[in-house]
């Protein structure tokens, strides 16, 4: 019995030790890091520096390369707006202001863009920015040895000259009036091969670390050439759960969140500074123009007449957002045509007549494929499906994982219709409109309109800005007339900030400028 | 000894089969890591060149072979999504998951031993009846739903914790463990119920044994008999359950991490699956499977050590 007892105790201890071994093991590890972090937190908590570090909630993890030329997600672009700069950078009005360059000239024929480097711009690793770095960055993006350049628009670059150590000349193959917009592309140090994981740029903040699915940390760049940032440290905390955003803000563990919807704003109450803007994307029911019955323009128009866009806004976002009628959103200023939003005012009778003409008098069944991770698109699809019942169209909603959407819908174009938002990576009308040219690789809806293709050729060919705007506007009209898609809205975008901070400004494209955010003055 | 070798062989084969199966699964589901990273910026050309860069253009068996070769050398490869070594990712996430499972295991022991004894001692009487009802209730609620219930009650209604307000262990040990309290309780509760039930019937069985009567006749009180003689004997069958519960706890934590938005191994696994980041998925699956198989194996061995009547063949 004694022997058994000893064995039992031994076995118990062993099991316990096994289970707790891990626990104890990382306890020490945790203790180490705690001492580390406590020294940090003691410095951030000192009274004069209170408020100089901020925690910002971001709605998704950056499952992306951090290399600015390879990063693809809008979510990565908007955060790393703080780390990287191009020769020029956009301002809040959508103009391009000089950044790494101090001035630029564009030749008469719009083929040569010349830049003078700004004095004293330094990379985050301390090295000064030289013309070689600029040349390297541009050529890296234009390098087509892998089949396609890293930045597709850079295929237009013929050569990069560096006549002296202050000047960079970019010579294009063809005249291009919009090329300045692409020169917001990040300037990075030459021959530095860790951009993927330890990115180095010239922006007001420098990258510190990323913990996947947890956070991204940035610190103030003390050597910034322009107006220095007002915050010393930013922690971007991944908050994928919509409710967690509200509770974290209220609980004070997060100071600021963006891309919030109406429900979340309502849940926050009055204690927060709320900034309202737009998402700068085109939410639409995208129709596969090659798939029956959407190969018939009359059917597409019928759908446009059948839906009440304002109702979608009212039900999904408390009426916030901007109803649109083509692939262009208001932030684009001169290209945007507000009148197109009213072309298809809801008219069920007209929709029915159009369907009858097309031979679908008794309606039809259709499938709306929606990526399930985008609640705002799922909601919109549900309301659209309900509205389409009025013209006897039976729309089934199929929820699909984002990666399956990318592969089946976007790449293979195996879908009938889908609700998503399409954004612009640069501030050019081209970024929104080129995908609907019939042979474009991103033309996932298989739109095919000869006049549209011709207009695009003309727009690219002209060196006259006013003329170009006309061509682009005609393209927008064609998308609208031909009912390429059922355009819905540019969604509302809200930013909530703890009143301890102030100073947020929206940009007309994906950019989350933290350099302007500052502790509020009491 | 022969037994040991046989067991170890099964362990290796099991792991091989599991890793091959999870690898095969990636051939079936649509999309790949290249497309996942490119998103809507994808074009056929870009996708192809990134696939080449990632080595996804090679035949499937060749990829599995090179993964296996690397893995055996201790190189788990590089994450496609984050471009960092997988081993680093796992080292970052493992403490979180281990902490949850460790805590859940402790709760399970701390609750089920006293309650099981109590229920056994008062079998058929009021405390036992209350416990039986509670047990049924808790046992029939799956862990993830328990998590949701706890979030609603203690998080949203009572504000005892901030749902989604996970604090990294790098930021502080105490708030980190504090946040993990409720998730680990959600995992432990169904296991507690099971443990109480098992221990109860085990205690009842032992109480009817001759040696207990002998103990009474030697002048032991009921409590003395219970703690001095019955306890250790009745723990024997329950021990197997506890060991196996560890594997189960690890599996539940994968799901509960989603419910409580904790960025541990489970979240890493789920995210990596949706990003088609198979080096990470492979590593996590093999790790968890290996742990489960190893614990099973250990239980077999332990059993023989505790009770010599069990003959290992």
Task: Fill in the keyword field for this structure.
heterodimer, A: 522 residues, alpha+beta, 7-stranded mixed β-sheet, 6-stranded mixed β-sheet, 32% helix, disordered N terminus, B: 313 residues, mainly alpha, 12 helices
Mean pLDDT figure of chain A: 85
Order of helices and strands of chain B: HHHHHHHHHHHH
What gap, in angstroms, lies between the N and C termini of chain A? 75 Å
User: Strands across the major sheet of chain A, in which order?
Assistant: 8-9-10-1-11-19-12
Indicate the multimeric state: heterodimer
The total of beta strands of chain A comes to 21
Find the count of extended strands of chain B (DSSP E, 2+ residues). 0
Strand content of chain B: under 5%
First and last CA, distance of chain B: 9 Å
Task: Describe the 3D structure.
Chain A is of the alpha+beta class. Chain A has 13 helices and 21 strands. In chain A, the strands form 5 sheets. Chain A has a 7-stranded mixed β-sheet, covered by helices on one side. A 6-stranded mixed β-sheet of chain A has the order 14-18-13-17-15-16. In chain A, strands 4-5-7-6 form a 4-stranded antiparallel β-sheet, with helices on one face. In chain A, a hairpin with a 5-residue loop joins strand 6 (157-161) and strand 7. In chain A, helix 4 (242-251) packs parallel to helix 5, helix 7 packs across helix 9 and helix 12 packs antiparallel against helix 13. The longest helix of chain A has 44 residues, at 2-45. The radius of gyration of chain A is 27 Å and the shape is globular. Chain B has 12 helices and no strands. The model of chain B has no long low-confidence stretch (mean pLDDT 84). The interface between A and B is large, with 70 and 70 residues.
List the helices and strands and how they pair.
The complex is a heterodimer of chains A (522) and B (313).
Chain A (H helix, E strand, L loop, with lengths): L1 H44 L7 E6 L15 H7 L7 E3 L5 E3 L2 E6 L5 E6 L13 H12 L14 E5 L5 E6 L32 E7 L3 E6 L12 E6 L3 H10 L4 E5 L1 H7 L4 E6 L2 E7 L9 H10 L2 H9 L4 E2 L24 H11 L6 E7 L3 H14 L5 E7 L1 H10 L5 E7 L5 H5 L16 H12 L3 H17 L3 E6 L1 E6 L3 E2 L15 E2 L3
Parallel strand pairs in A: 1-10, 1-11, 15-16, 15-17
Antiparallel strand pairs in A: 2-3, 4-5, 5-7, 6-7, 8-9, 9-10, 11-19, 12-19, 13-17, 13-18, 14-18, 20-21
Helix pairs in contact in A: 4-5, 6-8, 7-9, 12-13
Chain B lengths: L1 H27 L4 H6 L5 H11 L5 H13 L13 H36 L4 H14 L3 H15 L15 H35 L2 H8 L4 H38 L5 H10 L3 H29 L7
Helix pairs in contact in B: 1-12, 5-6, 5-8, 5-10, 5-12, 6-8, 7-8, 7-10, 8-10, 9-10, 10-11, 10-12, 11-12
């Amino acid at each position: 019995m004694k022997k058994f007892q000893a064995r039992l105790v031994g076995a118990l201890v062993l099991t316990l030790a096994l289970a707790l071994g891990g626990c104890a093991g990382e306890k020490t590890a945790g203790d180490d890091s705690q001492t580390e972090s406590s020294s940090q937190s003691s410095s951030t908590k000192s009274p004069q520096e209170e408020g100089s570090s901020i925690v910002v909630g971001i709605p998704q993890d950056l499952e992306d390369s951090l290399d600015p030329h390879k990063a693809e997600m809008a979510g990565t672009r908007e955060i790393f707006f703080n780390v990287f700069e191009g020769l020029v950078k956009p301002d809040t009005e959508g103009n391009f202001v000089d950044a790494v360059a101090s001035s630029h000239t564009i030749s008469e024929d719009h083929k040569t863009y010349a830049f003078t480097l700004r004095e004293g711009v330094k990379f985050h690793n301390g090295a000064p920015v030289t013309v070689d770095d600029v040349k390297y960055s541009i050529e890296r993006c234009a390098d087509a040895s892998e089949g396609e350049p890293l930045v597709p628009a850079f295929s237009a670059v013929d050569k990069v000259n560096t006549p002296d150590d202050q000047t960079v000349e970019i010579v294009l193959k063809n005249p291009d009036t919009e090329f300045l917009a692409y020169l917001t592309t990040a300037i990075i140090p030459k021959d530095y091969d860790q951009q993927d994981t330890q990115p180095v740029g010239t922006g007001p903040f420098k990258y510190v670390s990323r913990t996947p699915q947890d956070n991204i940390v940035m610190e103030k760049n003390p050597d910034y050439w322009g107006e220095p940032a007002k915050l010393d440290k930013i922690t971007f905390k991944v908050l994928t759960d919509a409710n967690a955003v509200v509770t974290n803000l209220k609980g004070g563990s997060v100071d600021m969140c963006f891309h919030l919807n109406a429900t979340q704003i309502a849940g926050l109450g009055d204690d927060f500074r709320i900034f309202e803007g737009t998402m700068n994307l085109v939410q639409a029911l995208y129709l596969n123009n090659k798939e029956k019955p959407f190969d018939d323009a009359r059917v597409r128009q019928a759908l446009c007449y059948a839906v009440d866009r304002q109702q979608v806004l009212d039900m999904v976002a408390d009426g916030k957002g901007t109803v649109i009628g083509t692939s262009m959103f208001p932030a684009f200023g001169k290209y945007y045509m507000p009148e197109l939003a009213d072309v298809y005012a809801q008219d069920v009778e007209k929709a029915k007549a159009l369907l009858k003409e097309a031979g679908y008098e008794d309606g039809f069944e259709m499938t709306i494929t929606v990526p399930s991770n985008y609640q705002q698109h799922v909601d919109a699809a549900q309301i659209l499906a309900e509205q389409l019942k009025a013209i006897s169209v039976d729309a089934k909603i199929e929820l699909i994982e984002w990666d399956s959407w990318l592969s089946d819908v976007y790449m293979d174009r195996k879908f009938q219709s889908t609700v998503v938002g399409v954004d612009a990576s640069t501030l050019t009308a081209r970024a929104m409109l080129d995908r609907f040219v019939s042979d474009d690789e991103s033309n996932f809806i298989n739109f095919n309109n000869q006049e549209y293709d011709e207009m695009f050729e003309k727009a690219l060919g002209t060196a006259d800005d006013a003329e170009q705007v006309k061509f682009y506007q005609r393209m927008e009209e064609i998308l609208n007339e031909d009912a390429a898609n059922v355009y819905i809205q540019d969604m509302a975008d809200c930013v909530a900030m703890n009143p301890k901070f102030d100073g947020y400004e929206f940009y007309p494209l994906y950019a989350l400028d933290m350099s302007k955010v500052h502790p509020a003055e009491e | 000894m022969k037994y040991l070798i046989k067991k170890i062989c099964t362990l290796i084969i099991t792991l091989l089969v599991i890793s091959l199966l999870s690898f095969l699964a990636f051939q079936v589901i649509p999309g790949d890591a290249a497309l996942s990273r490119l998103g809507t910026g994808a074009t056929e050309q870009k996708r192809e060149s990134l696939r080449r860069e990632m080595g996804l253009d090679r035949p499937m068996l060749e990829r599995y072979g090179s993964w296996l070769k690397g893995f055996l050398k201790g190189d788990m490869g590089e994450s496609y999504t984050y471009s960092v070594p997988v081993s680093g990712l796992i080292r970052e996430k493992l403490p979180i998951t281990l902490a949850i499972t460790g805590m859940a295991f402790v709760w399970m022991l701390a609750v089920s031993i006293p309650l099981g004894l109590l229920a056994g001692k008062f079998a058929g009487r009021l405390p036992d009846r209350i416990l039986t009802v509670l047990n049924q209730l808790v046992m029939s609620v799956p862990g993830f739903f328990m998590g949701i219930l706890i979030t609603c009650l203690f998080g949203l209604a009572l504000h005892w914790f901030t749902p989604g307000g996970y604090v990294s262990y790098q930021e502080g040990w105490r708030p980190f463990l504090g946040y993990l309290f409720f998730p680990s309780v959600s995992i432990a509760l169904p296991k507690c119920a099971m443990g109480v039930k098992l221990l109860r019937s085990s205690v009842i069985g032992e109480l009817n044994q001759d040696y207990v009567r002998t103990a009474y006749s030697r002048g032991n009180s009921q409590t003395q008999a219970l703690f001095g003689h019955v306890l250790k004997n009745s723990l024997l069958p329950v021990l197997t359950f506890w060991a196996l519960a560890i594997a189960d706890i690890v599996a539940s934590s994968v799901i509960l991490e989603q419910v409580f938005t904790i960025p541990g191994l489970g979240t890493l696994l789920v995210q990596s699956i949706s990003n088609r980041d198979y080096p990470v998925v492979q590593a996590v699956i093999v790790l968890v499977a290996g742990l489960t198989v190893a614990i099973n194996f250990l239980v077999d061995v332990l059993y023989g050590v505790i009770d010599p009547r069990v003959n290992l063949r």
